[in-house]
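User: Show me a protein chain along with its predicted structure.
Assistant: Here is one chain, sequence first, then structure tokens.
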Amino acid sequence: MICHRCGKLFPEGYRFCPGCGLESTGSAKPAGQGRPLPAPHLPAGTSSAVLYAGFWRRVVACLIDRLLLGLVNLFLCLFYILLSGIDWNGEELRTVSLTSAVFGFLLRWLYCTLLESSASQATIGKALIGIKVSDEQGRRISLLRANARYWAKILSTFTLGFGYLMAGFTRRKQALHDLVAGTLVVRG
């Protein structure tokens, strides 16, 4: 049988599709009547059912990460200001603010790239929510792919946020930057 929702091929007699969980009571086509979609490669010992992380899970993970990185950046900025004795109203404060913004950008880039390509496959926010980033075959992504995914977020932003919203309605819950980088955000 072929599931009409996800296209996964599965033997007759199954009540639910192992790919997406759809009940197969008359909703699946017999094998040969339609083209099945290729199933992602999963490491040995894992379930064949892939649960993609939806839009709201990703939003909460992003908020946690932004809050964490913002607090780190704020702490370091205030620490520098207090140690150096900068005049709070002077030109030096503007320089510190600009430096803090640049540092925050670099911190976010390294944080996302290094953690998403690590063995955990997740930033701290993603790990707390229980989601991780993988390639389209379910494997850990390389540092190069994590870097491409990060920079592709520029496209998701320049589309007035529509690139991020795509995670709410694409079949595999991929945002624009995931489609560009060939990545998935999955539960687990």
